[in-house]
Amino acid sequence: QNMDIVKGFYYDVILDRNDATKKYWFEGKRYENSFPIFTRYRFRMPTGAPDMSFSATAKEDLCIPTPHAGELSTIHPLRLGKPYRFVYGATLRGLGTIVDALVKTDVITRGAVIWSGPEGHTPGEPVFVPRPGAEDEDDGVVLSVVVDGVTETTYLLCLDGKTMEELGRAEAGFAIGMGFHGVHVPVAQ
Predict the structure, then answer these.
(1) Contact, 130 vs 141, CB < 8 A?
(2) Which of 51-65, 89-103, 159-173 has the highest mean pLDDT?
(3) What is the DSSP string of 13-44?
(4) pLDDT tens-digit profile of 129-158?
(5) Are 157 and 146 in contact (CB under 8 A)?
(6) Which of 112, 167, 104, 102 is nearest to 137 (CA)?
(7) How many whole angstroms separate alpha carbon 101 and alpha carbon 43?
(8) Which of these, 72, 96, 149, 157, could form a disulfide with 120 (CB 3.0-4.6 Å)?
């Protein structure tokens, strides 16, 4: 409802020049205004009026606050447009400048399982990859590119979709720029 998150992406804040990160986010607890909230609305769409005008009403169906909610959310790809139970996202617990953890949210129980790396590790958008032929909605892996701000390198993190425990990682040995969504560009010929 305000510009706090946008101003948090200012260059000095991200690079923490002269303690700009701590000053910006923690003085006055500004980071609390930028916590994600998972909210689902149910819309009732009336049938068309004779003059073809429409209006819809919305009712809040579900609301789950941080840290049990995340940004850049994803679900099992075969559950799109259907009822689902688990949502995977990137969340901010106030320990970093952008996001600092990955979260699996159960929209039925409102419980969550959180993965968090060491200080200075910033995970990107999670991607859920289901196990072929799996019966359970959360049977698969969660992939995320994580920037290690301490060593200035990046790794591809692989988590168990049920437990959010690390299964492995592929170290890049160099920094890969963070983006909010995957960008796939063919190699120049």
Answers:
(1) no
(2) 159-173
(3) HHHTGGGHHHHHHHTT-GGGGG--EEEEEEEE
(4) 999 999 999 999 999 999 888 888 999 999
(5) yes
(6) 104
(7) 31
(8) 149
